[in-house]
Amino acid sequence: MTPVPALPELRAEAFRLLSRGVADRRSAFHTPTLATIGPDGAPQLRTLVLRGFDPAARALRLHTDRRSAKWSSLAGDARAALHVYDPGAQIQLRLSGTASRHAEDEVADAAWFASQPGSRLCYSVSPGPGTPVPAPPAAPRADAGGRAHFGVLRLVFDRLEFLHLHHAGHRRARFAWGTDWVEETWLVP
């Protein structure tokens, strides 16, 4: 039987996987699914690229087009959740917390200038994301002013669930953070 890790070791493994997701574009943790609450109260899901992770602050950085539905949804309700699953390792992480939006500030400027030119092109598409069109739009041009549409989402999570599916027994744990406390507990899978 596989030895049971201590809860702090499991939390450290989750943080390692998130860090790897930033650095390794082949990692399943590179493209998590973000959930927000739409204006009609319904959940909205979409896949994004994990661009940064600050373990000490429990903060994830994701980039988005400010014309997107997720940007306006988070203006109305900053609560968000992130889900990622690695089928090879059979590990699922679920995180929830509060997202802040950054557009015309140092956070967005730093992220924009650190982005690859090809990534910047995504924000030059016209019309904006989700707009109905009769045919696929032309490829964006490098000089089309994508910076005006670029935004950064910074998700600070206060809850993380770790699920490892394993033939010798599944393991599930929850980590929760408050202002001056941390709770770590095992859960029934």
Fold topology:
Layout lengths: L6 H17 L9 E5 L5 E5 L2 E5 L4 E7 L3 H8 L2 E8 L4 E12 L3 H9 L2 H5 L28 E15 L6 E7 L4 E6 L2
Q: How would you sum up this structure, described in words?
A:
- With about 190 residues, the protein is of the alpha+beta class.
- It has one domain: Roll (Pnp Oxidase, Chain A).
- About 20% of the residues lie in helices and about 35% in strands.
- It contains 4 helices and 9 strands.
- The chain has helices spanning about 5-25, 70-75, 105-115, 115-120; strands spanning about 35, 45, 50-55, 60-65, 80-85, 90-100, 150-165, 170-175, 180-185.
- Strands 1, 2, 3, 4, 5, 6, 7, 8 and 9 form a 9-stranded antiparallel sheet that branches.
- The longest helix has 17 residues, at about 5-25.
- It starts with 6 loop residues before the first helix and ends with a strand.
On the 0-100 scale, what is the average pLDDT? Answer: 93
Biggest sheet layout:
9 strands, antiparallel
Q: What coarse outline follows from CA principal-axis ratios? A: elongated
Quote the distance from N terminus to C terminus. Answer: 17 Å
CATH architecture: Roll
Tally of separate helices: 4
- CATH T-level fold name: Pnp Oxidase, Chain A
- Total domain units: 1
Can you say what the CATH homologous superfamily is?
Electron Transport, Fmn-binding Protein, Chain A
CATH class: Mainly Beta
Q: Secondary-structure element order, as H and E?
A: HEEEEHEEHHEEE
